[in-house]
Amino acid sequence: MTRVHAAAEKNTNNATVNWNSMKDVFCAIDLGATSGRIIIAPAGTSVADDDLQVIYRFPNAIYEQNGMFFWNTDSLWLEIQKGLRLLADRKDLHVLSIGVDSWGCDIIFLDSQGQPIAHPRAYRDPYTNGRMEQLWQQLAYAHSADNQYVKDPVSVGRNIVYLKTGIQMLPFNTIYQLYACSQQQYAPFLQAAHYLLIADYFNYLLTGVMRCEYTLLSTSQLLNWYSNESAKITQNTDNSNISQTNSHISQFVSTQSSKTVCPHLDSDLLQACGADLSKFAPMAYPSERIGMLRGEISPFAHEVPVIAVASHDTASAVTTVPDEPIAYLSSGTWSLMGIVSPEPVITQHSFAFNFTNEGGVGQTSRLLKNITGMWILEQCRSEWKKQGKDYPHEQLIQMAQQTDYKIDNGLIKPPQLFNPDDPRFANPVSMLNEVQKDIPQSDNRDALTVWTIYHSLAHRYGEVFHLLQQLAPFTITRLHIIGGGARNAWLNQLTEQAIGVPVTVGSTEATALGNILIQSKAL
User: Fold this and answer.
1) What is the mean pLDDT of residues 159-187?
2) Per the count of CB atoms within 10 A, which of 203, 213, 369, 453 is most buried?
3) CB-hemisphere CA count at 13 Å for 445?
4) Using CA atoms, how far apart are residues 501 and 103, in angstroms rounded to an integer?
């Protein structure tokens, strides 16, 4: 495993350099589920996609061992160091700072010496299956007055978690990963002295300083938004179904105006999932300096600060969205649709619709919903490639547009339409088999498969958008699409038809761009 020596925390000014012969740049380390990149952009008043330059790109993938799924963080660290050395070889560039972003939820366990005990489990590992309901039930009984009988403990426990966190119920949230580790007596969890999420771990490797960045930590479903919210369940409450459970939401929402937004790790939730509050590092907010790049691993001739950007990749991406009454869609392997709100939106409807409130820049909240995105198509492409059919994206779109499927009101007729968020698409043995269950055998079955995926995605975007309209504190005038999917003109067109408002296209490199924009504001 990767070894790192903790460094003393200090603030140090950059060494003197020859400014006349160098261009000042910011460096973003952007880690995704399928690849990582070292990207730079010049310092300046405004930065756009065209200003970004990829210095190094490297693959990333989940691997399986003994039925468990992991991320190879050792390999990622070697690739990051290689990318930084390549950047240092550019003698025409002067690196002002570095920022790291990654996906959320997954957690790595470190020992008392700060060394990783094992590779982190991946969010597609099925070890959390069924753990949500178990934890909810446990919480319901723990919070019931005088241990009274609770008629529907699963609904009550779900209510408790949402009132505290406002986070979408997803089985891979950190809270359920920790609970699964506790229930399974997973050795690295039991031995851990420190917990770090993915970007936080690489910030630690870079600096020797442990911090939990706010936007990344908010994905854990362990962050309580309010300083005085207890979500206790009284013995007289009938919790037999969701509408009755919502009475607690109503009581909570009616007193929100008297509550102080003060995000903090919730000790009750941590205790319930068997985790230790003291093992989390202090919180850092976007634009804070974490530390200086460690001398023993730095390839640069000068000292370089490492900045806490919005370390959750979507939070960085949303930084690029215009400050207007609009919704955004971050389109990629995952799709995330939402709005930026000054405070969390925790209501009866957000609870029923299972929307999430994640941290944003400036301690804002991002009200959004996770949607399975291009993951489904990419998995199908991988299977086709193994069959000797290496389809480029452009060819797949052309094939799909030329199919003879009949369209009814712009949407595919049932039963071909499917819900991309159905658990059967999370990590199936064969994605093609799952998608093609209702697609007839034919010479153009591959094209029909792509057609179905695209229209199913667009239809799901429409469903989520109309739910979002009911939750937003303003009228949504348009949908602004960012991320790699923004360049997919056909999917954007289908999405516009499904949502009924104009679609505009923003940065296709929104995550890296947002990462760099935050760095530029920090210095």
Assistant:
1) 96
2) 203
3) 13
4) 29
Who contacts 149 (Cβ-Cβ below 8 Å, separation ≥6)? none
Q: Can you name the residues that pair with 196 across neighbouring β-strands?
A: 108
Q: Tens of pLDDT along 331-344? A: 988 899 999 998 99
Is the pLDDT reported for residue 239 higher than 70? no
Out of 30, 101, 152, 313, the active site residue is: 313
C-alpha angle 212-102-317 in degrees, rounded to nearest 5:
105
- Residues 6 or more apart whose CB falls under 8 angstroms from that of 35 comprise 57, 58, 59, 60
pTM (predicted TM-score): 0.84
Helices assigned H by DSSP within 170-280:
174-184, 187-191, 198-207, 214-217, 242-254, 267-272
**Integer Cα distance of 22 and 25 in angstroms:** 9
Residue 523's alpha-carbon distances to 43, 308, 311, in angstroms, are: 10, 12, 17
| pLDDT surpassing 60 at residue 519 | yes
Give the CA distances from residue 57 to residues 30, 224, 257, 491, in Å, rounded to whole numbers and listed in that order.
Answer: 10, 36, 47, 26
Is 313 among the catalytic positions?
yes
70 vs 193: CA distance, rounded Å: 20
Q: Residue count of the chain, please give it.
A: 523
First to last CA, the chain: 34
Q: Read off the pLDDT of residues 443-489 as tens digits, 9 standing for 90 and up.
A: 889 999 999 999 999 999 999 999 999 999 999 999 999 998 899 99
Buried b (16+ CB within 10 A) or exposed e, 419-449: ebbeeebbbeeebbebbbeebeeeeeebbbb
User: Nearest-CA neighbor of 364 among 218, 202, 147, 208?
Assistant: 218
306: Cα within 13 Å, side-chain hemisphere: 29
Q: CA 273 to CA 138: how far, in whole Å? A: 9
Q: Which of 277, 176, 261 is nearest to 221 (CA)?
A: 176
H/E element holding 493? helix 489-499
Q: Are 97 and 26 in contact (CB under 8 A)?
A: yes
* Six-digit token string for 449: 């498969």
Can you spell out the DSSP letters for 101-130?
A: EB-SS-EEEE-TTS-B-SPPBPTT-GGGTT
List the 53-59 sheet strands across, edge first: 53-59, 35-42, 23-31, 93-101, 305-308, 288-292
Per-residue tokens: 464: 């989520």
Please state the separation of Cα 19 from the chain's center in Å.
38
- Which amino acid is present at 84? L
